[in-house]
Amino acid sequence: MSDFYKKILDNNKEWVQNALAKDPNFFADLAKGQTPPLLWIGCSDSRVPANEIIGAKPGEVFVHRNIANMVVHSDMNMLSVLDYAVNILKVKHVIVCGHYGCGGVKAAMGNQSIGIIDNWIRHIKDVYRLHNAYLDSIEDETERFNTFVEINAKEQVFDLSKTSIVQAAWKNGQELSIHGWVYGLNSGFVTDLGVNISSNKDLDEVFQLQF
Ligand code: CO
């Protein structure tokens, strides 16, 4: 058994002991159910651990992660997570959190084939196509990359608000805010990108659903 593998099993025992030392009912209480106020949609990147960077305890955040924090409207995995979070858990907030240095976004800026993932990266390329005039006008490559990361996270906020799930929740008067964030790998800080959509009236008419 590798050292790392053995270490994580030991870590788990230690974590349980520490949690129980602080609160003997910690796991017994968690086992009763969950009512997290937040759904987190983030990147699979190992450097962006959802709970840790926002100081959320177990039970406080429902998490969905994929490469480049994408909201692909035919992705049954994302739709199932979103539906459960919004309609059963009744989360109050959804955060789409992109991050600087995202490998998926970087790949979408280039043309190198990587494998099957090329077909996932295509969704990010669609975002590039939507904003290519602006992005191509940014001469500095790092700045263009950072801007693309931000634009991609914002676009996923719009894509969330276009889903039937979110539009129906708003229609029913449910309290639900969607936020776009970007995380700095080299600073640890998150930045709120300031996209605030709280009704389907803010959407392009093409995407507005009537119920
Ligand atoms: Co990433």
Index terms:
single chain; 211 residues; 2 domains; 9 helices; globular; binds cobalt (II) ion
Protein described:
With 211 residues, the chain is an alpha/beta fold. It has two domains: 1-33, no CATH class; 35-207, 3-Layer(aba) Sandwich (Beta-carbonic Anhydrase, Chain A). Helix content is 46%, strand content 14%. It has nine helices and five strands; from the N terminus they run ααβαβαβαααααββ. Strand 4 (177-183) and strand 5 form a beta hairpin. Helix 5 (103-109) packs across helix 6 (118-130). Residues 43, 45, 68, 99, 102-104 line the site of cobalt (II) ion.
Radius of gyration: 19 Å
Which structural class fits the helix and strand makeup?
alpha/beta
Tell me the series of helices and strands, N- to C-terminal: HHEHEHEHHHHHEE
Distance between the termini: 56 Å
Q: What kind of assembly state do the chains in view correspond to?
A: single chain
CATH topology of the largest domain: Beta-carbonic Anhydrase, Chain A
Helicity level, as a percent range? 40-55%
Bound molecules: cobalt (II) ion
The CATH class of the largest domain: Alpha Beta
Beta fraction of the residues? 5-15%
**Globular, elongated, flat, extended or rod-shaped: what is the shape?**
globular
Largest sheet: 5 strands, mixed
Unreliable stretches (pLDDT < 50, length at least 5) are none
Corresponding CATH architecture of the largest domain: 3-Layer(aba) Sandwich
Number of strands: 5
- When the domains are counted, the total is 2
Mean pLDDT: 97
Count of runs of 4 or more consecutive helical residues: 9
How do the strands line up in the largest sheet? Answer: 2-1-3-4-5
